[in-house]
């Protein structure tokens, strides 16, 4: 079950962090994987390490999104799985947030997702088959955190996009779903500092942080043929972080 043998997948933002964990698990499941990332050096190194291909991609540019999809199909003949994973999360309080801060977050996290998925759906519609998985977050749709109101807005926006897109494309054999990570131990999370990491561990029932591969395993299910009856849905992968009503509920 859940074999992705001979499936072709493209993972945006796959050079490191959660994206790299997704690439690793897709490869373990047998998929042919293309890493599409703006970081050429890290992306190419990750591709060599994991047995994937690498293509340069700036998701904020519609023509680059179209080109990477076109090139993927030219190389492999089809595109079965798109993992729209590229995302940024610089902090800014509302008091200090600028229009440029807001626009940058939305351009990468929301508009970039739209550009890439729109290009992929055109291919998948012709195939009458496709799996699109968006990396959203618990932050925004469910929880909040000071300094990330613009980030939370984009992550909630991704889910609103997903639900309507899923309705439009269900009749073509295309499923569009999302994973919602909690605190996953990536380079970006480590950069928040040890105090933040310890604070997050204390707020999670498992008292651990997730691994990037934990998100990848959820993605593999949503990318599989067995998930054919699942669309417009989310899977939360957070170690139970959103469950406690109060800190007293944590054992």
Query: Which shape, going by the Cα principal axes?
Result: globular
Record field, number of beta strands: 7
How many helices in DSSP terms? Answer: 8
Q: Would you give the CATH topology?
A: Rossmann fold
Unreliable runs: none
Tell me about the biggest sheet? Answer: 7 strands, parallel
CATH superfamily: NAD(P)-binding Rossmann-like Domain
Intertermini distance: 35 Å
CATH architectural name: 3-Layer(aba) Sandwich
Strand order of the largest sheet: 3-2-1-4-5-6-7
Residue share in helix = 40-55%
Structural class: alpha/beta
The mean pLDDT is 96
Q: What's the helix-strand series?
A: EHEHEHEHEHEHHHE
Keywords: Oxidoreductase
Enzyme class: oxidoreductase
EC number: 1.1.1.100
InterPro entries: NAD(P)-bd_dom_sf, SDR_fam
Can you tell me about this structure?
Helix 2 links the parallel strand 2 (32-37) and strand 3 (53-56). By secondary structure, the chain is of the alpha/beta class. The chain is built from eight helices and seven strands, in the order βαβαβαβαβαβαααβ. 45% of the residues lie in helices and 15% in strands. Strands 3-2-1-4-5-6-7 form a seven-stranded parallel β-sheet, with helices on both faces. The protein is globular and about 50 Å long. It has a single domain, classed as NAD(P)-binding Rossmann-like Domain (Rossmann fold).
């Amino acid at each position: 079950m859940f074999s992705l043998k001979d499936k072709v997948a493209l993972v945006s933002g796959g050079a490191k962090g959660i994206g790299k964990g997704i690439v690793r698990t897709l490869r373990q499941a047998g998929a042919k994987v293309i890493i599409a990332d703006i970081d050429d050096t890290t992306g190419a190194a990750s591709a060599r390490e994991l047995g994937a291909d690498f293509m340069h991609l700036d998701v904020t540019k519609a023509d680059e999104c179209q080109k990477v999809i076109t090139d993927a199909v030219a190389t492999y003949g089809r595109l079965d799985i798109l993992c729209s994973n590229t995302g940024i999360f610089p902090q800014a309080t509302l008091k200090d947030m600028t229009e440029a801060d807001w626009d940058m977050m939305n351009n990468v996290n929301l508009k970039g997702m739209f550009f890439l998925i729109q290009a992929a759906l055109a291919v998948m519609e012709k195939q009458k088959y496709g799996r699109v998985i968006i990396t959203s977050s618990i932050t925004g749709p469910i929880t909040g955190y000071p300094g990330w109101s613009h980030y939370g807005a984009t992550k909630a926006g991704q889910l609103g996009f997903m639900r309507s897109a899923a309705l439009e494309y269900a009749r073509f054999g295309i499923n569009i779903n999302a994973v919602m990570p909690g605190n996953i131990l990536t380079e970006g999370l480590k950069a928040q500092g040890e105090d933040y990491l310890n604070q997050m561990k204390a707020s999670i029932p498992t008292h651990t942080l997730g691994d990037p591969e934990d998100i990848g395993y959820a993605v593999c299910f949503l990318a599989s043929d067995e998930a054919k009856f699942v669309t417009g849905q989310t899977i939360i992968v957070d170690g139970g972080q959103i469950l406690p009503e109060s800190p007293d509920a944590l054992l």
